């Protein structure tokens, strides 16, 4: 492999920056540009050395550490420089590494080296970028399980059981006079049923995984001036939406996200739904109706001080097929005369706002998320698991009629499908596409 180099910390001004090199010539290139303050007889792995880099017309005092293969992140020899965190300064030290002979690393190439060298399985590598991109406690908890190798271990064990059953089948195929064909098929059926149950358990966590990954999408709807924007501000705990007494203040959708009990909730404030001749308002109202259909949960807001009118009834009709929480707002002004049941609030005074968040969470997450077990948050993993379950169901049917060689081939296809998760059988284009999603320097 080439020796590659890249900046591993975000560009910008900060305390420190890290420049990483990985490959057989990492130490050679590093020592050609780094001057030790106290030169050692031999550079020791995992020792931090103080010195300087002289490049062109500047000298930078920095630290250098060497990780000897295979005891490094990538499985190759790795050298990292820690320097002052200036954007231009950092780029010049990277240029010094490249001038010494290193090649500029592509997106995710350090982690791809780790995958190629067996330091990480493909699912573990994907969890690295998911951990980096995590924006909630739930995402960190779920992906840390995958990074620890728990998904790899479970999938690999299922693959091993299937392959052992395949081996028994092939013994029957090669030596029919010494083996009982029926026993080989019965063993395969038993293994398939056990594997199916384990995969179904994983697949059942995918709905919770989707919530962890994408959050709960909540649309706030109602007629004009019922307090939708005030409600959004109260839920966010800050003045984000413009609030006025003018009808039609909100003309477009406004999206904001909070984290509640570790779960992301994505709120969408919409234009007031009513009859309007204004072309801009009509577009906003149309978008509001689209948001209702796309939302996981709808907050239908009504004015506590007014009886239901035709516009309110239009809102109720619109929400008939949706998971809806009625919000009876403006209780600071009057008692509930709408005749509706729901959460009575005062958005102005932030009354009962926590109750809304709790209701959203309980409605979206039917069962409490168990972070002690594996949760499938990656869509690629979910697709492979569902495909394997379908293949198992088909093979269980074929076991009643098909010949051993056909069963052997179909069982191997299940093994290959599960191998897409760990990376054992995924094609190079897909693998390259996964690592292309990584940031530079990772």
Task: Please tag this protein with its features.
Four Helix Bundle (Hemerythrin (Met), subunit A); Rossmann fold; flat; Gyrase A, domain 2; 46% helix; 442 residues; 6-stranded mixed beta sheet; 3 domains; alpha/beta
Characterization of the model:
This protein is an alpha/beta fold. It folds into three domains: 4-105, Probable tRNA modification gtpase trme, domain 1 (Gyrase A, domain 2); 123-205 and 375-436, Up-down Bundle (Four Helix Bundle (Hemerythrin (Met), subunit A)), CATH 1.20.120; 218-364, P-loop containing nucleotide triphosphate hydrolases (Rossmann fold), CATH 3.40.50.300. The chain contains 15 helices and 13 strands. The chain has helices spanning 26-33, 87-100, 109-116, 122-133, 137-147, 150-174, 181-203, 206-214, 228-236, 279-294, 310-318, 353-364, 379-398, 404-422, 428-436, and strands at residues 4-7, 14-22, 34-36, 48-55, 58-67, 78-85, 103-104, 216-221, 254-260, 263-269, 297-303, 324-329, 343-344. The protein has a seven-stranded mixed β-sheet with strand order 3-4-5-6-2-1-7. The chain has a six-stranded mixed β-sheet with strand order 9-10-8-11-12-13, sandwiched between helices. Helix 4 runs antiparallel to helix 5, helix 6 packs antiparallel against helix 7 (181-203) and helix 13 runs antiparallel to helix 14 (404-422). The longest helix has 25 residues, at 150-174.
